[in-house]
Structure prediction request, 402 residues.
Amino acid sequence: MIILGIETSCDETALALIETRPAGAEQSAPGGIECRVISSLVHSQADLHNAYGGVYPSLAKREHGRNLVPLLHKILEGLPVQEPVEPSHYARTIESFRHEIEPQNPELFESFAAAGFLKNKPFIDRIAVTEGPGLEPALWVGINLARMLGELWGIPVAPVDHMEGHIVGSLLSEDSPSAGWQRLRTLPAPALALLISGGHTELVEIGSVGRYKIIGQTKDDAVGEAFDKVARLLGLPYPGGPHVSKLSHEAFEEGISSPIKLPRPMISSGDLHFSFSGLKTAVLYAIRDHYKETGTENGKALPDAFRKGLAREFEQAVSDTLVSKLQAAIEKTGARAVIIGGGVSANHALRSRFQALAAEFDLPLYMPSSHVSGDNALMIALASALHPAEPRAMKASGTARL
Ligand code: KG4
Ligand code: ZN
Prediction:
């Protein structure tokens, strides 16, 4: 089966094509399938949003609308044509969507209606699209493209939960997620996922692929959001996570320690929940105090050593908190494997802390390769292959429904 994945939940416009086939009887891959990544394309809008210090929803929506069809053209280039679309069906489909989609997503509709390559139906068996959670205006662009393609080519469209995508993305092999046919990593039950992204921080108990229970989550900011806000305070571009991490690493290499000690939020709360907004505020206060103590004008460039030391302490505070909650969750659930997912999982300092924890408990640890740690459509197509949703009317939503 060939699945086209579509992801537009935030500021990455992403498409992917995967092929799946039943795994041999002797294999215990989750969902019993093997997977081959045909292509995975991600177009990041980060540079555009940088000027706003974060994702600007109406800009994200417009950019998805502009970029999706050209990206689709590119990804379909290598795929054989199954049959031409019957001209009257083509014309009817365009007209039937005009009233609804042209006013909502003019860029998408215009490029769709002008794209001659869509008149050939490719060998695709299913379209999988992120339905939520995410920015609603951005999500609708992907959903609307999926609906139009589904109708035009007569292909079923399946909604996918973005967070489930981050879980299954870590089942791809870490070294070479794009190389040939691969068995997915096996998932003993119960497994535990720690999802750390720009919008979410969640601990999820997994009975099997498709059976999830959220057992811990953030009460305010997500980890990635805290990284991005702290980056802004330190004068770094968006998305800030990798920049904070780089400063922290430099502090480590140069032996620079923090000017202050930051809190480890909710580390002794006795539950599995998180809170990161106080940590960000503590960084803000540390910067304010620095200006006061040194008699420097507010907003003036901070000394390098101060920024590096603060970045290092912030990253350390985040690591201590995540590791402590993950350990508590392992102990509580008796997890037999741990999955880390979401954009923040690219952080090297965090990855080595998770590795140490998993080794201590002698548990398999599945972390995404750099190809799939950030938002992408490969994980969306894969989630649909492993856990196909019943076809139904879709509605973009900011909330998760794992
Ligand atoms: O999963 P993702 O790509 O998008 C959402 O679904 O939110 O995660 C994006 C988040 C951003 O907040 C970004 O700053 C953070 O992941 N991030 C990192 C690193 N790389 C990306 N945070 C810390 N260290 C990193 N190396
Ligand atoms: Zn994400």
Q: What stands out?
A: The first strand starts at residue 2 and ends at 7.
